[in-house]
Amino acid sequence: MYEDFEKIPFGEIITPKTYQKLVNVEHYMTKYEGFGISQHVLDKLKQHHIKSIMFIYAGKRQLQVYMAATKQYLESIQTHMYKDNDLQKFVSIDKMIQLK
Question: Please, which residues have CB within 8 angstroms of residue 63's CB and are 6 or more apart in sequence?
């Protein structure tokens, strides 16, 4: 079962309950003041009962780590259609836990 987790695009499972995603300044959506995740990725996280999402943000001269509950993304009404076929959901970083 753990092998399936590693095939989730754009990130990886670091524990059976946490999905890790590396992001940079290009991934930050100013309109929603946070980071987005594709709906198809969220569906896989839900299917595998992943409870949390860890964003490792590599900004200009800084490294920050944010945690969000998968449920926050699943329930988010902040959406954006990327390239006409990739629905993304967003949570602002002020609603996440900052670890670093």
Answer: 56, 57, 100
